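JOB MANIFEST
job_type = single_chain_structure
chain_count = 1
residues = 154
[input]
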Amino acid sequence: MSQQRFDHLLQAIHNAVLRAQELTEEQHIHQISKYFDDDGLPIIQEMQVPSLDPDDDPDNMVTLRVPLMSLLPPSAIKIKEMKVSFQVALGKIKISDGNKEKEGMQASLDIDMGGSGGKFGKDQAKADIQITFEAGDPSESFLRINDHLIKSVV
């Protein structure tokens, strides 16, 4: 593999983390869409439960219409921590004049991430990556919608 700029590697790792977070957000939105139909109405699960009226026959059942979202609240997931460790060979430090957008001189560090020259080539660079996910609290809007749906159970 040829020389690469170190800042490009860091930018690529940063972009990968941002994309992973976007995927968790998209999954959360997709999960919430399971609880509402195409018209935006909550999907309802009907259940037969015993009547709470003490004067009723104990075998008398009442139908409850329960929004599915209140039975199975979605779980939010987010990236809590990410650790990356890797080995690279340090290359040249390149210094260039500043451009019109930024003042002063610009410096970049080249790195060699290994090669793929087959049996006689350099060893391929390896990275150890650890990503820790955690369950997040549901959003305030989810909690408010859920509270409203729970109050509507009849």
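[summary]
The mean pLDDT is 79.
The chain has one domain: 3-151.
exit_status = 0
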